[in-house]
């Protein structure tokens, strides 16, 4: 998903064509830091169009680089570390141009401030998501590093009274080779702050990179292996109480009555807080809070959705696809092309609601005072946290302080602030700080879910089996319409359509329609790989069906449609070759392929799947070929792909949230299962060397693996699965 | 009532109900937050500690069942030979991503290595499949355990 295709394409072309001069839009100012060092303030491109329109007078920086007197370099940026490694990758960008050791660069959380820290590719919202932290930082941070280096060299040259061209930067120092002199950056920082900001700086050629493209040790790893890493749930404050809660089991329901006598009698329980649609138990520790919660007798009024079942929602979506909707993309004339087609293929697909199930259950710590409110949480959207807490507490924004923490899994769940609002509502009734921790059951049953989608496809093939017409219409929730309304236009949003339009394939006639249908009684949200988590599954499954209908090899069939997409063709060929595509396999073992271009990254995967006689599916091996442009930290790329593939397989094999009488039927890891060690496949990652701008990395492995698995199951059994997750009973070998 | 429990070599007195899970005593009463809450039902392994060296799900272990047993948590596992090898392998292999489950993973892996210096893939599956990693670091966990096992061999 790229929220503003127009400007981001402009950014991409600017990056590829003009790496050696400052973009007019990459506004930057330099001066003295309060600490006496050199401070660079930069405005990441497209972060704030109002500021750009205002010109230099309206310069609004959103990232800061300080070079301290001791040589330490501190970046202040809006991104959080969720395990995706950006706290290592982003410092690499500046260290590369600044000619310093990576250890000298430290990245700090930015405090909440949407105006300052808005993410450029996300329309100025302060957010870590959409696989874009490195993409947004790639050009401006390298430029800033080069500018700082130039100013430090100028300061040294001035001190020595020599030509700057006779000096060079190396390992955090400026060297003057003719005289053998050198000065450390820290000693130059104050003087450098008084040097003019260069208008043109030369960026390194990719072949000269020393850090970018080399595996770097992640800076956050040591604390994560010795128990000292502090996540939101680990916050400890003097006098803090622990609360846990029961929310209405039906979304939109209310508390009818509460008998809390037994709960209050539990040792360590201090208080019961009753809200309109939830009850919380406040205690000295979570053990007492949970015991108290179990002792509560709550009667609920389910409200308008108390009879709602998943089938009702799926049925409404299916019905919606019988009528036409807003056109997301049209190429040529599919009606005419279908009429002349030799073979026609039709199929419908469905993908379920999915929970995020982050390992760190939802939690938020809040201290509400009369004159202010403090919040401690791990969030992908810390500015929204602050705003939501202010509203819920009835306080002005400047009376709310929000502290961000490490995130024990985000995957989109921590792009939402429902848990913050809930914690503030409870904390308003509590004297002193309270940490609200959700049980796993609450976490699964009051998530905000990856939307359910229903898809309808039809295609026409010519006599050779080549697709001449491609029709795709689908219905489901638009998360964007709620989460970032300005980006929902004319019934379309750039998230649900990513992966469904602008396909890598050359299709002469193509027509795609999207119908926004919001399900009643269940909230929806972004989920790792967002729109493509749905669209790539259906597109690559249907492409596989076309290959089968044409009686052609699934790789060869796709390859023939990729003449105008050389990067896509290259990853497909690499994945197929490394996977041994075409080599014989035992009975009920099959290979499946998929290919995608989403998050500005090209990827192909081949899954090798074994289906037991009982229908049980085991993924033996996944081979992934990726072209994500310039690789900043190859170890992180590999780790993210391994991770995303496991995430996708988990959904393909186990992932499904269903409603019965308005209640989520899954509750913990027994009923909402995760892939485990004994089910995890061998994963091979092959990275294509590229000097293109970096593409997104955190999510694309998830969307790509699901159709590869489904297509492999087809190859192994002849059974086409058009509804996720995999239904093992449908795959049983006939006796 | 008050219970005396021995954690990482130090004896603490805690005044909680006897059925209070050890997890909450560690985290909320003693302030040792390295041990994590994941499910509360022994389904995910995030809360794994060692009780007399045995990997144990602290979220379902009542404090009154501990008695005189010694408890070791992630905060002190590095002081054991197997724990130190596992932690080093975790660093060398860059295993953690979000990192939240890794305390439990390391506790399970350390117990495995302490009792079985050269585990097979099947041994690793048996010992580690109770620990969920939502970031899917399984490939690297397996590699890291094998690396730690190799260093066991070299070190005798």
Under CATH, the topology of the largest domain in chain B can be stated as: DNA polymerase, domain 1
> Main beta sheet of chain B: strand number and arrangement?
5 strands, mixed
CATH topology of the largest domain in chain A: Aldehyde Oxidoreductase, domain 4
The helix-and-strand class of chain B reads alpha+beta
Quaternary state of this entry equals heterodimer
CATH level 1 name of the largest domain in chain B:
Mainly Alpha
Q: In angstroms, what is the radius of gyration of chain B?
A: 15 Å
Number of strands of chain B: 5
Query: Looking across the biggest beta sheet of chain A, what order are the strands in?
Result: 11-12-9-19-16-17-18
Largest sheet: spatial strand order of chain B: 2-1-5-3-4
CATH class of the largest domain in chain A: Alpha Beta
Please report the two chains with the greatest interface, counting residues with C-beta closer than 8 angstroms to the partner's C-beta.
Answer: A-B, 66 and 61 residues
Taken together, the total number of domains of chain A comes to 3
Content-based structural category of chain A = alpha+beta
**Distinct helical segment count of chain B:** 5
Low-confidence stretches of chain B: none
Strand residue percentage of chain B: 5-15%
Got a strand count of chain A? 28
CATH superfamily of the largest domain in chain B: [2Fe-2S]-binding domain
Q: Which sequence of SSEs, written as H and E, runs from N to C of chain B?
A: EEHEEEHHHH
Overall pLDDT level of chain A: 90
Keywords:
heterodimer; A: 735 residues; alpha+beta; Aldehyde Oxidoreductase, domain 4; 3 domains; seven-stranded mixed beta sheet; five-stranded mixed beta sheet; 28 strands; 30% helix; 24% strand; globular; disordered N terminus; B: 156 residues; Ubiquitin-like (UB roll); DNA polymerase, domain 1; 2 domains; 5 helices; 5 strands; 38% helix; 15% strand
